[in-house]
Amino acid sequence: MRTRVIVLLLTVLLTACAGKAPVPLGPTKSPVPQTGKPDVSHPDLATGLAIVRIARKMLGSPYHYGGSTPRGFDCSGLVSYAHRQAGIQVPRSSAEQYREAREVSLHDLQPGDLLFFRLQPPKVSHVGIYDRNGRFIHAPSSGKKVSYAFLATPYWREHLIGAGRFR
Questions:
Q1: Domain that residue 99 falls in
Q2: Does residue 34 sit within a domain?
Q3: Of 64, 83, 126, 159, catalytic
């Protein structure tokens, strides 16, 4: 009897661990209210908002592999540039950024947090800067420009592997 209970519990636990973590499809529990002005008295939030503001100024910049200036960005170059302009040094590649960032729950995303994607397994191969309301800014790929994308899009939801923060 006891063995059956243990086997049943192990089966339930293993089954629960086998699925993907849920990805928020809309607004998260961010300290930024959906309406009105955010409370920028918290230093992490103020810095995150500065990172987003800098990234927004780069919307429309061309994609350039290895680029990390307004003349052209790749995904990790955009992240590196926006953080550097906000006074924060971060590693240059998306894989290094993923390894070194402080992990953040997808339910606690704040503006300026990083979203990491695995587009070409097994490595982390893409990163974006979370804004709000399920949107992020990224440098998508060759021939495209820095733009917004949505976590609710099936492609991004399927490839999302985590979030991180450097502040």
A1: 41-165
A2: no
A3: 126
The rounded distance, in Å, linking the Cα atoms of 60 and 139 is 9
Percent of the chain with pLDDT over 90: 72
Q: Is 126 a residue of the active site? A: yes
Q: What is the pLDDT of residue 126?
A: 98
Q: Which of 75, 83, 107, 159 is catalytic?
A: 75
Question: What mean pLDDT comes out for the span 61-73?
Answer: 97
The residue annotated as part of the active site, out of 42, 107, 138, 159, is: 138
Task: Give the chain's domain count.
Answer: 1
Q: 77-103 pLDDT, tens per residue?
A: 999 999 999 999 999 999 999 999 999
Q: Does residue 72 fall inside a structural domain?
A: yes
User: Nearest-5° angle of CA 50, CA 160, CA 157?
Assistant: 105
Burial letters for 58-77: b for 16+ Cβ neighbours within 10 Å, e otherwise?
Answer: beebebeeebbeeebbbbbb
* CATH number reported for the structural domain that contains residue 81 in this entry: 3.90.1720.10
Residue 20 lies in a domain: no
Q: Is residue 2 part of a domain?
A: no
Q: How far apart are CA 11 and CA 124, in angstroms?
A: 30
